[in-house]
Write a structure and sequence with these properties.
The structure holds two protein chains of two kinds.
Chain A: H1 16-25, H2 29-56, H3 60-64, H4 66-71, H5 79-101, H6 108-130, H7 148-174, H8 179-193, H9 197-211, H10 220-246, H11 249-257, H12 262-277, H13 279-292, H14 304-313, H15 321-350
Chain B: E1 11-22, E2 25-36, E3 40-44, H1 51-58, E4 66-71, E5 74-75, H2 80-89, E6 90-93, H3 105-115, H4 121-134, H5 150-162, E7 168-172, H6 180-195, E8 199-203, H7 207-213, E9 216-221, E10 224-229, H8 231-236, H9 241-252
Parallel strand pairs in B: 3-8, 3-9, 6-7, 7-8
Antiparallel strand pairs in B: 1-2, 1-4, 4-5, 9-10
The chains are: A mainly alpha, B alpha/beta.
Chain lengths: ~350, ~250
């Protein structure tokens, strides 16, 4: 038995499409039965849906109102401003792919500038969309004219970008050794998690003006953004806390033993590991936020779903609810799935060498 | 107690009557120890005897509650600035390596020199590569710790500690978590380090290593040093019954 075993091909029945089908779909009689039943079910549902979608459905309700769905009542002669914003984001997205796509140090300076670009794109977008009262090039477009997918995006993006750092701070606060900081963080997190999002939005929309000094008005869209941010931050904080708890004590000890300061231990050793571990739940929270922006309906903002509601309420589009709501659902799905996919990619990219 | 030599002007670590409690449990019960520059001290003793807690008080991962610890002329007190200064002079190697899994080997080694010593990155990397060379794994520099064997990881941990150019190295059971075939490669590195004149305190039960390298062996039990002696005397002629019992257990297992 000293001969070296030769590597041979696996048996024919194990490979190829047919092999896969046999192994996974028809391995036992009940597996085969399940496969056939599922196929039948999918066929019935899909046939109904496809027949309707390709023959009966009147998709012109979507095509006619496409601009409305995308930007709501945003003045049509100012649409170029939206396009400039979109172009900016696409450009930055492309540059990011170049900068982070290829490993190596020579892209370091591109990364730095792309990061700066992303940071600047934020106020730039808001300024570009909002405009200025006295400007002829960029006349004022009040937030009550923002709507559709544009508004949905703005609410979601501001909510995501602002709630993340706030959530991380709250998570750190909850583990702080200073009792006041710790108590405040716990109180905040538990309070927010104890009430529904609708309540928070109502509070932000209706009650906030009561707390503000007389004559000071905060924009309605801004109030919604603040509401989403405060709400999501509490959940992010709890997710991040889980990640922090997963970092072994030995990591703190090794870092402190090297002479790193408390902040360096947190920023260089603990947080990078903790945040990596919580990418899936945090992205899940972001997806929830994206879909929950549809709740601004209750405070009268014209987001994508509210626009859909107003479209089907018009006499000439009576009875076209199915088309409109299916279209809206597909849009929500596409972007939610894109986020989910991006998070899987991110996890993979950051998970290198972790076993 | 007669087992401790008197303090001298050349001592880099001085511990006088060090006490510590975990709640009601009296872990350290008045430990006295003085270690000379360049001296290699091995501590052995049963688990739960407080030996690990004791060496962790020296770089203040644990705070002592009574007594005095003076390291390189600086007394360890509540003052945080002292603690950071002390820690950067003391390297520590742990039983479970505690490498930073999200950083490459080279970045594990350069991290503290860059952020604590404020060295430029080029200098830190040059020193790091020299150290990885010294512990015998320069080819692993751009891998992540998770891709290395236990013995390699522990050697990286030693390189990481040495990168701060410490005056003292503490080893807390550095080979206890390793498979037998990897223990030698780590002990070889430690042996070389000891011969280079580094001041070392090593908790280990590798008695062969202790015999060969240590200047002194201490037996630790129930929160204090029971006896200490040169390796020859320690093994040939242990004074205390407890020491004899312990030695018979670990030498014949």
């Amino acid at each position: 038995m000293t001969a070296i075993s030769e590597a041979v091909q696996p048996p024919r029945s194990e490979i190829g499409v047919l092999g896969w089908v046999r192994k996974n779909l028809f391995s036992t009689w009940y597996n085969a039965l399940l496969t056939l039943a599922s196929l039948g079910f999918i066929y019935v549902v899909l046939r109904g849906l496809l027949t309707w979608a390709l023959t009966t459905a009147r998709w012109e309700v979507v095509t006619t109102n496409l601009t409305l769905f995308l930007i709501g009542p945003f003045p049509r002669q100012q649409v170029w401003r939206v396009w400039v914003c979109v172009l900016m984001v696409v450009l930055l997205g492309g540059l990011s792919m170049v900068a982070w796509g290829a490993p190596g140090r020579r892209h370091k300076w591109i990364r730095r500038w792309v990061t700066v670009g992303w940071l600047l794109s934020f106020p730039l977008t808001i300024m570009l969309l909002h405009g200025f009262a006295s400007s002829s090039l960029l006349p004022l477009v009040g937030t009550s004219y923002w709507g559709g997918l544009l508004l949905t995006f703005l609410l979601a993006i501001v909510g995501i970008v602002a709630s993340f750092p706030l959530g991380v701070l709250l998570a750190l606060g909850r583990r702080s050794s200073l009792p006041v900081v710790r108590w405040f963080s716990i109180l905040y997190i538990e309070l927010i998690r104890g009430v529904p999002l609708v309540t928070v939005l109502f509070t932000a929309a209706v009650m906030l003006p009561l707390f503000l000094p007389e004559g000071m008005r905060v924009d309605k869209v801004l109030r919604a953004m603040v509401g989403f941010t405060l709400f999501t931050a509490a959940y992010i904080a709890e997710n991040v806390r889980g990640g922090l708890a997963a970092v072994p004590l030995g990591q703190y000890e090794a870092a402190r033993a090297l002479g790193l300061s408390g902040w360096q231990v947190m920023g260089l050793i603990v947080l990078p590991q903790a945040l990596r571990a919580v990418i899936p739940p945090v992205v899940g929270q972001f997806i929830t936020l994206f879909k929950d922006t549809s709740l601004v309906v209750i405070i009268g903002l014209l987001d994508l779903l509210n626009i859909a509601k107003s479209v089907v309420a018009q006499p000439q589009f009576m009875g076209l609810k199915r088309e409109v709501y299916l279209f809206v659902a597909v849009i929500y799905f596409v972007f939610s799935y894109a986020m989910s996919y991006a998070s899987q990619r991110l996890e993979k990219a950051l998970g290198v060498g972790e076993r | 107690m007669s087992n401790e030599r008197l303090e001298s002007g050349d001592d880099i670590i001085i511990c006088r009557d060090v006490h510590k409690w975990f709640g009601d449990f009296h872990v350290l019960r008045g430990v006295n120890l003085a270690v000379k520059r360049g001296e290699v001290v091995v501590i052995c003793g049963p688990s739960g005897s407080g030996k690990s807690t004791f060496i962790r008080t020296i770089n203040r991962l644990e705070e002592h509650q009574k007594g005095t610890i003076i390291v390189d002329g600086i007394e360890l007190t509540q003052d945080m600035r002292n603690v950071a200064a002390i820690r950067s002079e003391i390297g520590m190697v742990f039983q479970s390596f505690n490498l930073f899994p999200h950083l490459k080997v080279i970045d594990n080694v350069t991290l503290a020199p860059i952020w604590v010593r404020k060295w430029p990155k080029e200098k830190a990397e040059k020193v790091a590569m020299e150290l990885l060379e010294r512990v015998g794994i320069p080819e692993q520099a751009h891998k992540y710790p998770g891709q290395l064997s236990g013995g390699q990881q522990q050697r990286v941990a030693i390189a990481r500690a040495l990168a701060m150019q410490p005056k003292i190295m503490l080893f807390d059971e550095p080979t206890s978590a390793l498979d037998p075939e990897m223990i030698k490669e780590v002990l070889d590195v430690m042996r070389e380090l000891a011969h280079s004149g580094m001041t070392m305190i090593v908790i280990t039960h590798e008695m062969g290593f202790a015999k060969e390298v240590a200047h002194r062996i201490l037996f630790f039990d129930e929160g204090n040093i029971v006896e200490g002696n040169t390796p020859e005397e320690f093994f040939r002629n242990p004074r205390e019954e407890r020491t004899r019992l312990f030695l018979s257990q670990i030498l014949t297992h």
